[in-house]
Design a protein that fits this description.
two-stranded antiparallel ribbon, single chain, membrane
């Protein structure tokens, strides 16, 4: 008889379970409300205004009608994610990003000293501008081949791709799928706090580069230090030098123009955000233009451009629609009039602590939740409606609440088994999960510490 293995529940199943628990909570938790008033276009909770009201429990059928209502409430964010994903789908289909990075990585292969930092820097830029995660899986075989040819192992090749992208994703200065979504919910300017995030990003990236380089140096001196030692011994010399596997497309002038279009479009977006008060709708429209122009310049033609656009939207469907499911939690809590009661309880628990410990509590909560909801946009939709009023009542800037979400969500993606991107990297690289954990656990702790210090500094300096 086969022993049954425990299977991690599907993310949607976890969120639906939370919806059911919250619905039951509307029958058990007293209904209550805070008064709110508008300040600078934002709804802000009035301190000491909490009062209990008549109960309004959610019925069994209302649980299910709340799901389409959640989709409706999250429509702006959902379609923003779809349209941005579509634009990147069209850009990706031109082959510009793939061939450009392949050319760079192969050229860098002969400059061993600069290989790891330059490759990690490039992927980190893609991480904080486009939210690159699963998209970088395709480059792992190239990274591994070059790393092996230089006397390293598969872990080094995988790490310089995946941890480079992760460093940028953690920094998140212009990440439309995490920071953009969370700031939209928090009603603060999109991509505000850029300078502070950039400083933390530099520390995160530097720590990642030094960590990978130190490991690579140890492996080169003595291959027995590799966490993949037994596997690496079985890799043939031919495999170690095949750096062109699966990449025959040359980097052309078309590709260069597509990348210029993407870079120029992102630059216009930044200018629009800071000078024209652009928000999610304007950014989504801009990405549509970027995708269409990039597709046409890249030689896809009108039909292939739109079909690639649709394919790109398919790739982000999981994360986009999960926003609607997550917003259902808020709909149920609002209909049951318990969201303010929960916030009131949380305030009473932690209000006696220093503000720096309050934000660390938010941070730890986000780290814990990320195991169950690894989708950044889904986690933002689940937690930010609670964290924003909580931050208001505790006297913490909303920007700091977004930072706590951002770092709590992003860092653990490089180690948790529920991360689709991580599992994709390891599957392509042939690295067992336990070997990867053995390699990376110290870096995760270092990153958590850097982000924790950053959050404390954000509170002390009042980052907005």
């Amino acid at each position: 008889m086969k022993e049954k293995r425990w299977v991690i529940p599907h993310t949607y199943a976890i969120i639906f379970t939370i919806i059911l628990i919250v619905a039951m909570g509307t029958w058990l938790i007293p209904a209550g409300e805070y008064e709110r008033h508008e300040i600078d276009g934002r709804q802000v909770v009035v301190e000491n205004s909490f009062h209990y009201v008549e109960k309004s429990p959610v019925s069994f059928f209302e649980i299910f009608t709340s799901i389409p209502l959640g989709m409706e409430k999250g429509a702006t964010i959902i379609f923003y994610i779809f349209l941005v994903g579509g634009a990147f789908g069209a850009i990706q289909a031109t082959g510009a990003i793939d061939s450009g990075i392949h050319k760079l990585v192969v050229k860098m292969g002969k400059n061993e000293k600069f290989l790891i930092p330059v490759v990690m820097l490039i992927f980190s830029i893609l991480g904080f501008t486009t939210g690159m995660a699963e998209e970088s899986i395709i480059f792992v075989p190239i990274g591994i081949a070059i790393a092996r040819a230089l006397g390293y192992d598969a872990v080094v090749g995988t790490a310089m791709i995946s941890l480079g992208a992760a460093s940028g994703f953690i920094g998140g200065m212009m990440n439309p799928f995490t920071v953009g979504v969370a700031q939209g919910i928090a009603e603060i300017p999109i991509f505000s706090g850029f300078a502070f995030r950039a400083i933390v990003y530099i520390f995160i990236l530097s720590a990642g580069i030094m960590y990978v380089m130190r490991y690579a140096s140890k492996v080169k001196k003595d291959t027995s230090h590799s966490v993949m030692y037994e596997v690496e011994q079985q890799v043939s010399t031919v495999d170690k030098k095949d750096i062109h596997s699966g990449f025959q497309e040359k980097f052309t002038k078309r590709h260069m123009l597509v990348l210029f279009t993407l870079a120029g479009g992102i630059g216009i977006n930044m200018y629009g955000v800071f000078n024209w008060d652009w928000f999610l709708n304007e950014l989504a429209a801009s990405f549509i233009v970027i995708g269409l122009i990039g597709g046409m310049i890249g030689g896809l033609g009108i039909n292939k451009t739109f079909s690639s656009f649709v394919e790109g939207m398919k790739l982000v469907a999981f994360g986009a629609l999960i926003v609607g499911f997550a917003r259902t939690i808020l709909v149920v809590m609002e209909n049951g009039v318990i969201i303010d009661t929960v916030i009131h309880y949380l305030v009473n628990i932690i209000s006696g602590l220093p503000a720096t410990l309050n934000v660390i509590g938010m941070y730890v909560f986000q780290i814990f939740l990320n195991f169950f909801i690894p989708s950044g946009s889904g986690q933002a939709a689940t937690t930010m409606p609670l964290m924003v009023p909580l931050a208001d009542l505790l006297g913490i800037e909303r920007q700091v609440a977004v930072l706590a979400f951002q770092y709590g969500d992003a860092i653990s993606n490089s180690v948790i088994p529920t991360s689709a991107a991580l599992m994709g990297y390891l599957a392509v690289a042939g690295i067992p999960y336990d070997r990867w954990v053995k390699f990376i656990w110290r870096l995760i702790i270092i990153w958590w510490a850097i982000a924790g210090i950053g959050l404390v500094m954000a509170v002390l300096t009042g980052v907005k």
